[in-house]
């Protein structure tokens, strides 16, 4: 079943309809391109919004073949070079953490299953306690903010049954 255009008895469905639409758009763009103030490519900004446009005249056959008329070809815009992240088999986790204030010291408990004592790095850098530990394909990392007035000497570490106890003496 096809529909006929009332004015010219042409088939207006399917490919014939698309060709008719394309011809109409092509004619419109050709008329618009004749105006001196409307280039074939442009960029307009208004009220914080940006509109970029470009149009070219080509036949449906050229469109189907993916060709553009030679005078219409625009140089490809420069894309910023993207850096791809390196794939790794190491899984980074944040350990479960508890913090206790025991009068003259702060006590932190970090759950680090499968980690050996020699694979733990725990440092106090100003007001940040940094913990890094590696176990096979897992990397545990945690940064904890500590008020500078509370942080005193280097942390004391004790690892027992996958739980790291970190003690920080308070400043007097």
Describe this structure in words.
The structure is a single chain. The protein is of the alpha+beta class and 172 residues long. The chain has two domains: 14-72, no CATH class; 91-169, Immunoglobulin-like. The protein is 16% helix and 35% strand. It contains two helices and ten strands, in the order H-E-E-H-E-E-E-E-E-E-E-E. The protein has a four-stranded mixed β-sheet, with no helix packed on it. Strands 4-5-10-9 form a four-stranded antiparallel β-sheet, with no helix packed on it. It is elongated and about 85 Å long.
Quickly count the domains. 2
Oligomer: single chain
Helix content: 10-25%
Would you list the SSEs in sequence order as H and E? HEEHEEEEEEEE
CATH class of the largest domain: Mainly Beta
Give the rounded overall mean pLDDT.
76
The poorly predicted ranges are none
Strand numbers in spatial order across the main sheet: 3-8-7-6
The percent range for strand residues is 35-45%
Q: Name the shape in a single word.
A: elongated
Calculate the terminal CA-CA distance, rounded to whole Å. Answer: 92 Å
* Named CATH architecture of the largest domain: Sandwich
Q: Could you tell me the CATH topology label of the largest domain.
A: Immunoglobulin-like
Tally of DSSP helical segments: 2
Q: What would you call the structural class? A: alpha+beta
Radius of gyration: 34 Å
- Tell me the major beta sheet: 4 strands, mixed
Number of strands: 10
Pfam families: GvpH
InterPro entries: GvpH, HSP20-like_chaperone
Protein name: Hsp20/alpha crystallin family protein
Region (Disordered): 66-85
